Amino acid sequence: DHQDMEHGDRSARPHPVSQSELTLTGHSRMVTALCALGDGRLTSGSWDETIKIWNTETGQCDLTLTGHSGWVTALCAVGNGRVASGCKNKTIKIWNTETCQCDLTTLIGHSGWVT
Questions:
Q1: Which residue has better confidence, 10 or 96?
Q2: Residue 40 has what DSSP assignment?
Q3: pLDDT for 2-61, tens place per residue?
Q4: Residues 6+ apart with CB under 8 A from 64
Q5: What are phi and psi of 55, to 5 degrees?
Q6: What backbone phi and psi angles, to 5 degrees, belong to 5?
Q7: Rounded to an integer, what distance in angstroms lies between the CA atom of residue 102 and that of residue 96?
Q8: How far apart are the C-alpha atoms of 44 and 22, rounded to whole Å?
Q9: Beta strands 82-87 and 92-96: pairing type?
Q10: Which of 12, 24, 33, 36 could form a disulfide with 45 if both were Cys (CB 3.0 to 4.6 A apart)?
Q11: How far apart are CA 113 and CA 4, in angstroms?
């Protein structure tokens, strides 16, 4: 009804867009994957071939994991402080975010990018 729209029915109005709480900077190339670890940390993967572990309270990068020889295109939390990463070079790595090491040998077998 016209009177409702004119005098206060604000439910149909768009809500204001909120500002971001943090901007995380540190990768040297485009970020292509994100995954929440569930403990207040966030992982990001990039075309710079690295994975970064971020503290979402402070916005600081706590760890940088290196070892891929291609763009990191997929990330997935697998529990116990571990994250799986997929790469343009058709490989998967499982990382221990406490020791900063790849836990297993590189998993191979895909015929295309792991996304």
A1: 96
A2: S
A3: 444 445 554 555 656 567 678 889 999 999 999 998 888 999 999 999 999 999 999 999
A4: 26, 50, 51, 52, 53
A5: -90, 115
A6: -65, -35
A7: 6
A8: 14
A9: antiparallel
A10: 33
A11: 54
The answer to whether the Cα torsion of 24, 27, 32, 36 is positive or negative is: negative
The type of residue at 15 is H
b/e 65-93 (16+ beta carbons within 10 angstroms → b): bebbeebbbbbebeeeebbbbbbbbebbb
Backbone angles phi, psi at 105, to 5 degrees: -65, 160
Q: What is the amino acid identity at position 42?
A: L
Strand partners, 18: none
CB 32 within 8 A of CB 45: yes
Strands (E), the chain: 31-36, 41-46, 50-55, 61-66, 72-79, 82-87, 92-96, 101-102
Residue 76 near residue 47 (C-beta atoms within 8 A): no
Per DSSP, 19 falls in state P
- Considering only CA atoms, which of 104, 96, 107 is closest in space to residue 51? 96
